[in-house]
Design brief:
Blueprint (H helix, E strand, L loop, with lengths): L20 H6 L1 H6 L20 E3 L2 E14 L12 E14 L5 E13 L7 E15 L2 E13 L16 E15 L2 E14 L2 E2 L5 E2 L6 E15 L2 E14 L9 E15 L2 E14 L7 E15 L2 E15 L5 E17 L2 E14 L5 E14 L4 E14 L6 E13 L1
Length: about 425
């Protein structure tokens, strides 16, 4: 009896391996329909263009070396004194995928070296390590675990990034999620706990001074309960309740430590093999420790759509309103993001896939009157040349309009990526 197949769970919350064997068996009807073309572009068989990997006992190891050349016409994401540059990235990654008959324990380790052609102060070295596992200790129960530790350098267009920094901010990010799921006929339930922490390093400002970023250090400790009921083959009721503690370890002028609560519920449906949707709504609340901040409550929305208009095209659409944790250096403690997004994948050839997408996001910053409107458009393609070589070309246009003048900017980026896979 093998591990369950990867399902069409639109509402996955970070534990991609928490599905039970019973749930996997319930996907057989969907998997059977795929024989007649009811499959997403990303699921279509590309075995002739996928690497074989290296056999190592009960593991298959996939080494990858990627290189990227990227042109950015606004490397500091600013509306004044714009600067353009070309950067080069080298990204080695090794993934180890388990071939156990029942359980899962996968590993990955990677790095990224970034070098700018003219602005060497933006150069950086990143790294990451991840573990994903699932213990199927019987037919209807799964214990799952996800661990991540990484060093990243913050993109200059990130909403919380300091505007006047001459460098990109180094961020140590660590996350651990553990959960258990049970399927009992049409009813299923899962419980998970998580700890996630961000440590921001100081950076040099353009005037030569040092920007102290300790006030941005944050930890989120959370527990989440999900319940679902499949009241017909194609329809399912789903609910989620989440409680969290946001800890601001080195507060600046304002301590953004808070208790948070969120609850959403709704329906997910497979109207037919070609159309799937999911719609949840609810309410979220943040109760801050500081008397300078008043409690913030907001409506929450999660909506997703997958449509297969033809065998060679897949359409995705999303709508979301949610809290986004993250502290700025100028007095904001998180955001409420309302976003709309759409993406189309089109398979021109079995080894040539085009992607066209766009996103609109409105960000309300808690603790400030700042309001951002962000529009992003993307177009690109992936060309699977052989089992070992993958080439990608993409273009992105981003425009941000804010009621804070310094936060307005536009940015265009064009990049070419090659990946050598074994």
């Amino acid at each position: 009896m093998g591990a369950p197949a990867k399902g069409q769970d639109l509402g996955n919350d970070g534990l991609a391996r928490d599905q039970t064997i019973a749930f996997g068996e319930g996907l057989r009807n969907w998997d059977g329909i795929k024989k007649y073309g009811a499959e997403r572009v990303s699921e279509r068989d590309r075995t002739p263009y996928q690497p074989d990997g290296l056999r190592a006992g009960t593991y298959r190891v996939f080494p990858i070396i990627g290189t990227t050349a990227l042109f950015d016409d606004n490397i500091y994401a600013t509306n004044k004194n714009r600067a353009s540059d070309v950067r080069f990235e080298i990204v080695p990654v090794v993934r180890a995928r388990s071939d156990f008959s029942r359980h899962i324990l996968d590993f990955s380790v990677g790095a990224k070296q970034t070098e700018y052609l003219r602005n060497s102060q933006l150069n950086s070295t990143d790294g990451n390590f991840a573990v994903d596992g699932a213990l199927h200790f019987d037919h209807a129960h799964t214990l799952s675990l996800s661990l991540l530790s990484e060093l990243n350098h913050e993109d200059r267009a990130a909403p919380e990034a300091p505007r006047n920094a001459a460098e990109r901010t180094a961020v140590f990010h660590n996350r651990a999620i553990a959960g258990i799921r049970r399927d009992a006929g049409r009813l299923w339930a899962s419980f998970s706990t998580s700890v996630e922490r961000w440590d921001f390093q100081n950076v040099r400002a353009r005037d030569g001074t040092t920007i102290d970023q300790n006030a941005r250090d944050t930890q989120i400790t959370a527990a989440q309960l999900r319940l679902g009921y499949r009241f017909s083959p194609g329809f399912e009721f789903e609910s989620k309740v989440r409680a969290l503690r946001q800890s601001n370890f080195n507060p600046g002028a304002i301590d953004f430590s808070a208790n948070g609560y969120e609850a959403v519920a709704g329906l997910s449906a497979e109207v037919n093999p070609l159309l799937r949707w999911r719609l949840l709504g609810g309410y979220g609340f943040r109760d801050y420790d500081s008397a300078k901040l008043r409690a913030a409550g907001n409506l929450l929305v999660e909506a997703e759509l997958q449509w297969l208009p033809t065998q060679l095209a897949t359409v995705y659409a999303t709508a979301r309103r949610a809290y986004s944790e993250g502290i700025t250096g100028d007095g904001a403690g998180g955001r409420i993001d309302s976003s709309l997004g759409a993406r189309v994948e089109y398979e021109a050839l079995r080894n040539l896939v085009f992607t066209l997408g766009g996103e609109y996001r409105q960000s309300e910053f808690l603790g400030q009157s700042r309001l951002d409107h962000v529009t992003i458009g993307r177009v690109g393609f992936d060309y699977y040349h052989t089992k070992n070589w993958l080439f990608s070309l993409a273009y992105e246009h981003q425009e941000q309009r804010s009621n804070v003048e310094e936060d307005n900017f536009t940015r265009n980026r064009l990049w070419l990526t090659t990946r050598l896979r074994f």
